[in-house]
Amino acid sequence: MVTSLAAGMQMGVGGCDNTVHIPANWPMQIFKDPQGTCYPVVMNKVLYFSHYGYNPKVSTGIVFFTIFGILAALHIGLSIRAKRYGLLVTAVGCLVEFAGWAGRALSGVKNDASTDSSNYYMIQIVSLTIAPVFFSAVCYGTFVTLVNETRPNLSRISPGKLVYLFVTCDIVSLGLQATGGGLITSPTNTMEQQTMDKNIMLGGIIFQLAVMVVFSIYASEFFLRLHRRTTKMGETFLPGGLKWCAAGVGLASLCIIVRGGYRTAELLGGFDGPIMDNETIFLAADAAMMVLCGAALAASHPFLTVARPTDSFSRFGGEGKTLQSESERRMTQHWETEDWAPKGHMSRRTSFRGE
Predict the structure, then answer these.
(1) Are 284 and 61 in contact (CB under 8 A)?
(2) Are 310 and 283 in contact (CB under 8 A)?
(3) Which of 79, 132, 223, 226 ranks highest by number of CB atoms within 10 Å?
C-alpha cells in the first residue's frame, strides 16, 4: 500500500500551495499527489500529513460523538432534575468529547496538509486532551459529597479545602493541556517548536495523572478508616445508595488513570512513535475509557444514589432525596453525638436532616 501510494506521487514541494501547515524545517521528503495535495514522509512511511499517522475512520468518529452526545443529554437531565447544577460539569466534559470526535470524523474525510484538515486536527487534539479534566473535577466533588454524607471528621483534610485543592490542580492541568494542544497545530511551527508544545501538553497530562493517583490514594484511605469505624460501631459501611456512588467514582477515577497513562506513553513516544500511529490502541485506552467513565458517573449520579446534599456541598445545589432506611437514621443519630462529630459539624447534620 505504501509503495503504490508513493509511486503515484512526485517528490518535492514545487507546485504545492498547501504546505503552510508543514513545519518550516521539516527534515524529510514531501510528496505531492496528482491533485496537488502534499504529504510529508516519516520513517519511510507516506502519512496523511502525519497529523495522526493513519487516516481516522469516519464511522468511528460518528459512533463516538453520538455516544458522548447521548451521555451529555443524560447528565444534563440528571443534574437539572436533582437541582445539582455543579454536576453539569460532567455534561461539559461529554460535550468537549463530542466536539473532539466530530473533529476526528471530519479528519477522516479530509486529512492532508490543508488549512481545513489542520483545523479538524486542532479541534480533536485539544478537545480529547482536555475533556478528562472535567470528569476528574466531578469525581472530586462527588467524593466530597460522600465525605459529608458519612463522617467528615475522618477526613484528614476538611471537605471544603478538598474541593479547592483538587479543583485548583484541575485548572492548572487544563491550562497546560489546552495551551500545548493549541500551540502544537500553529502554522508557523518549526519541528523544535512542535516538540516544545508537545512537552507543555505532556506536562499537563502527567500533572493530571499524578493528581488523580494522589486523589485515589486519599479516597481509599478515607474509606478504609470509615470501614474500620463503622465495623467497630456495628453500623453499615456505606448505607443505601452511597456504596453505588462510591463505586461509580472509583471506576471513573480508574478510567481516567488508565487514559492518562496511555496518553503519557503516547506523547513520550513522539508523533511518529508506534503508539501514536495505532488507532486501535487509542480507541481502547482513550475512547473506551472515557465512555466508561461518563457512563459510570451517570449510573452512580448523586440524584440516584445520595440523600439531600449537606450545607457544605450546597454549591452543587438541590433538594434530592431524604434518608429512608433505618441504618441511615441510626447513622445520623451517631453523627449528632460529640464522639462522632467534630466541633462545628452538628449544625450541618441538623441541616442534613431538614430540621
Answers:
(1) no
(2) no
(3) 132
Cα–Cα distances in angstroms (integers) from residue 149 to residues 26, 41, 92, 345, in the given order: 57, 57, 26, 11
pTM: 0.76
Most confident of 56-65, 194-203, 312-321: 56-65
Determine the Cα–Cα distance for residues 64 and 70; give it in Å rounded to an integer. 10
C-alpha cell at 49: 500529513
Residue 114: pLDDT over 80: no
Alpha helices in the chain (DSSP H): 2-7, 58-82, 88-109, 115-149, 159-183, 191-233, 242-268, 279-282, 288-299, 302-305, 326-335, 346-352
What percent of the chain lies above the pLDDT cut of 70? 68
Query: Per the structure block, which three cell numbers stand in for 252?
Result: 471513573
Write the burial class of residue 182 (CB in 10 Å: 0-12 exposed, 13-18 middle, 19+ buried): middle
Residue 10 pairs in a beta bridge with: 32
Query: Residue 9: pLDDT above 80?
Result: no
- Grid look-up 452526545 returns 69
The rounded distance, in Å, linking the Cα atoms of 85 and 214 is 26
How far apart are alpha carbons 257 and 267 in whole angstroms? 15
